[in-house]
Structures are given as C-alpha cells and as structure tokens.
Amino acid sequence: MEGMGLRNVSSHCSISEMDDYDLSRLLGKPRLNIERQRSFDERSLSELSIGLTRCGLDNFESTYSPGGRSGFDTPVSSTRNSFEPHPMVADAWEALRRSLVYFRGQPVGTIAAVDHASEEVLNYDQVFVRDFVPSALAFLMNGEPDIVKNFLLKTLCLQSWEKRVDRFKLGEGAMPASFKVRHDPIRKADTLVADFGESAIGRVAPVDSGFWWIILLRAYTKSTGDLSLAETPDCQKGMRLILSLCLSEGFDTFPTLLCADGCCMIDRRMGIYGYPIEIQALFFMVLRCSLAMLKPDAEGKEFIERIVKRLNALSYHMRSYFWLDFQQLNDIYRYKTEEYSHTAVNKFNVIPDSIPDWVFEFMPTRGGYFIGNVSPARMDFRWFALGNCIAILSSLATPEQSMAIMDLIESRWEELVGEMPLKIAYPAIESHEWRIVTGCDPKNTRWSYHNGGSWPVLLWLLTAACIKTGRPQIARRAIELAESRLLKDSWPEYYDGKNGRYIGKQARKYQTWSIAGYLVAKMLLEDPSHLGMISLEEDKQMKHVLKRSSSWTF
Ligand code: GLC
Q1: Ligand 1 pocket: which of 265, 272, 508 to mutate (most atoms <8 Å of CB)?
Q2: Best substitution site from 128, 135, 444 to test ligand 1's pocket, by max atoms within 8 Å of Cβ?
Q3: What is the 3-state secondary structure (H, E, C) of 357-375?
Q4: What is the reported pTM?
Q5: In 3-state terms, what secondary structure has residue 123?
Q6: Which of 35, 111, 155, 267 has the fewest C-beta atoms lying within 10 Å of its C-beta?
C-alpha cells in the first residue's frame, strides 16, 4: 500500500508515536498538514524516547489535558511530594497479592475473589481476563511487569485451543472469559482449565476478552518500553486472529459489532444484545491499539488497511448516532417516521413514543453521553459507565463529547455516583420490563448487580477519564466516597440500591478488581503520567473526516 512510510519506521519509534497514525495518509489521501504540529515538549519527549528508556516518559504524550497542566490543582511533583498514602492502600496491596495465582511457580494472574466466607464458589476462583486488567495496571504502575507478561503469554496459549460448545466449534481467535490452574500434588503438575463460554452461565462467549488482551498488550508495551513482546510472531498472530473475528464481512449495514446479550462485563441477560456501547467502545480502542502494534509485514498490512477503513466508519457512526445530548434528544423527540431513501433524517426509524420518560428528566441542558445501543427502531437510552469511560480514553469521544460526559456525571452525581462509585448502568429496569428484558433474573433485580448496581471497580476508569479531561477533582470526590467504606465492608464486588448504599445482595467480599481498581485510581491521581498506558490521544485526521462526511450527508 502506498504511503506506508509512517509504519516503516515503526521499529525505530515508540508506540506513542505510532498512536499518532495519520488516517488520511493511510487511506492514501492527500494530507493537509504534512508535518503535524507538535509542541516542543511533545517532540523532545518522543525524541528522547527513541533508543532510550521509554518507561514513563512518553506516557506523558498521550495525556490529553486542555491548556496543558493547568487543569491540575497542583503540579505533579508537589502532588507527589505531598502525597500521603491512605492507610487503605497497604491493605489493598496485601489483599491483591493474596489473590495471585501461580502456574509452575510463576505468577500468571489474580483470582476473581478471595472470599472464604462465601459458600458458593461458582467460578470466582478463576482468573478472569477482564478482571485481571486493573490488577495488571496496578502491577505495571508499581514497576512489576513480569506477571503481566506471563498472563499475556499464558492466555495467548489458551487462544490456540480448540473450543467447542456442544458440537459447534468457536472461532479460532476467541479468548477465554477465565481460566483456572489445577495443581496435582501427587504428580506435582500444574494444568490449565479454561472457559470460553462453554461452561459459562448462559453459554455466551466473552467478546471483550480478546479486546482486553490487546489493550493490555499495549499497556505493557507502553509502560515497559519493551516492544519485543508485541513484536513476536505469536503476539502478532494472536492480534490478527482476534481482529479477523471482528473484521470479517457479513450482512452488516453498520460498522458496529453485532453481539449476543451478556458478552462482556455484563455477562447475563440484560437487554444489551445488538450493538452494546461497552463492546463498541472497546472495539474502537482495540482497533487503535492494534494499528500501533501490528507490523506492516505481508500478513499485517492487509489488517492495517481494514482497520483504518473500519475506524473511519466506526467513529462516524458512533459519534453521530450513539451520541445523545439535549439537542439530539429534542431532535429525536420531533422525528418523523416511515422515511424512506437516502434523504431520511430518522435513518433507523426510531419511533419517538419509544423514548422512555426518565430520559427527559435525566438529560441536563449541558452534558451528554453515548447511549447503550442503536439498531433498527431501537435506541437503548440507558447510561453505561464502562463504555462511556472507554469512549473518553480511546478518544472515540471528541474532546467536546468527553467534556460533555464529565458534565453529565457532575450534574447527575446522585444518580450515577450516589454513595458508592460507580453505577454500572442507569436507570434500573423494573417490573414488567425486568421480566421481559432479563427473563426474571433474580440476581439482576432493580438497582442490584448489573441492573443499576454500583461497582467499585469502575473507579479506575472514572479516574482515568477525569484525568484525561483535566477534571481530577471529580475523581478525588469519588475516591473519597470509596475510601469511606470499601475496606470496612471488605471490598465488595458491588453495592445495591438507588444510591449504592447497601452491600450487594450476592456480592462477593475481597473481590480482586474492587481492590485493584482502587489502587489504580490512587496511583493515577498520584502520578497522572500513568494515564498513557490506557489512553489514546485524539486523532486530528479522524475529526477532519467526520466533519467532512457530515457535511456531505446532510
Ligand atoms: C461476574 C461479573 C463479571 C466478572 C465476574 C468475575 O460474573 O458479571 O463481569 O468478570 O463476575 O468477577
């Protein structure tokens, strides 16, 4: 492909530079700005990173902070000096280390929950891929990358297993939801047992596992500066297999990814089938991370081309159709229906009567968010925290949209944060709707678990989003709330109730990702340069493309 010059230098530049891929160049279109204007700081940091240790330094580059560091109350150095570790931090580290899982003497992950009091173990004694992410980030931020590398390599081996549900063979690239290490004390042998959805309640494959794997691979690379892992043929192949599952062509008319209910953190039926925001935001982030890590060799090149095209279409679709603010809501409220042909404004034929009452009250004059789902004649107006935070971190949200999401969180604090950060979804589904949507799920009753429950793990995502948007005071407020209860309540998995006041009905105690999520939030606030591990800068070219195509379409 022409114009691949940018990628040819990839082995000499840092991942942060590769993040700044140039969409129009890759698409073979003329660029407006040949030399992207970079500030001296930016340039010198990335130059410094070439051939030198990249650890920590180029993390700064991806920190989106409007107006430079002025968004922060105090300069990083003095924050650091004055930082008094909260007494909970030491407890959290101890608890996190107790959750370590070993395979043949090497730490390979953390168990989902170390709750000895709970009678039902179910699968909480396993290493969940998604649950391990905050643990991994905590270890990376603490300068302990080995466990993360071991985890990435072990899960990569699992990917190559043949996976079946009854007589049906799953796609090659699928990654497990979780795995377990079986110790045989007699034969003194360790073996792995993995679950790709074939044992999971509901038998749903975790679409997010492979996505988190790629995001973690980038975080590891970014944090250690060790490009060699991502560049191994095995990791390159692992990425390509995951990508081929979600880039394959079918009957789709949208660039979003069609999913079954319960295919992500919300792993039970909750009416998120279709195009759930959590998966779309992760998908977008994964495409961008992969673009930075894929080698433009014989096999990688084709993927790079497909990724660029998909990113372009996906960002346009998400920013236009999933975005809801006061203006947009008012437009939908006044939609005409039964429009046919290319001139239709109401493209998906959404019937205004289907807009739920609560959203009119909920929507502030200032603020907005990506709604839960968009498909023909169906908009799920619910707020989902994970998808919106990932949208900010991946820069799927434009800077204006990111600010609007933070405005919404601030103005709807009672509803979205309440007494324990952070509501997984808002509002809860009740009565008849709950019966129909969840199939009468007793675990997902209103304001509990996935149905409007409050999940401490989401604190790290909120904190990262706050730092990226230059609003650390919001994170501080949320962390204080968590600190008033989490340890005392033994690190529950989730809280129940409209305000998140009650420990969840069936919540595990010593839930590892509640512990790790808190630690990551604390470390991010203490040293915002860690943000680069899980954040990507806005791509200016993509913004340009969006503007242009909107003016063409309307
Ligand atoms: C529950 C959660 C899921 C999590 C798992 C292990 O099933 O819904 O997101 O990965 O517990 O903690």
Answers
A1: 265
A2: 128
A3: HHHHHHCCCCCEEECCEEE
A4: 0.85
A5: coil
A6: 35
